[in-house]
Amino acid sequence: MDTSAPADFHSRVRRQIRDDALDAAYRLVEEQGWGAVRMTAIATAVGVSRQTLYKEFRSKEQLGEALLLREAQWFIAGVTEEIQRHTDVVAAIEACLRFGIGRGTANPLLRAVLSSPLKDDDTLLPLMTTGSEPLIVLAGQVMKDYITSRAPDLDPKDVQVTADALVRLLVSHLLLPLDDQETIVSNLTHLAARGLRLSP
């Protein structure tokens, strides 16, 4: 007896529930903040029981982690597409930084997280700051791979350190911007050119 079809259908249903739950959580965060997100409200919005929702996300925190991870994956896809448009390393880094700053500050989820009261215990900010390592690693790897492919003669240590520093500084500027976007992009591009020993 072939049981693959029912199993495949079950997997599709679970994926749909998961996606719908993340979409519902995103809308709530955008409109009312993370503090307004309740598992009961998410289950109602999706049209499933709380028990079914808890099979996908064991807690509200896990739901938040999944939400941030999905945003991170979309962000990395955009960075990858943007950086591949250029053949010049410094120009590519500048475009990548401009994309990151622009899309990051315009992202409704990020805006909602950053506008939460600093003393609010029920916020996504701790998940974003302490759980952002996968995003930093992925973005750094994208940049490092690109630089290495375009300029294979560069010192690998310079490439690794520069790529890692740029991504971490970009995340830092998104969380606490101290300058306007163009100044941030210009300064980080200059830093990258110096770090890679290339002319800015």
Automatic annotation (TrEMBL):
Protein species of origin: Actinomadura craniellae
Name of the protein this chain belongs to: TetR/AcrR family transcriptional regulator
Keywords: DNA-binding, Transcription, Transcription regulation
Keyword Transcription applies: yes
DNA-binding region boundaries: 38-57
GO molecular function: DNA-binding transcription factor activity; transcription cis-regulatory region binding
Coiled coil: none
Residues in HTH tetR-type domain copies: 15-75
Keyword DNA-binding assigned: yes
Lineage: Bacteria, Bacillati, Actinomycetota, Actinomycetes, Streptosporangiales
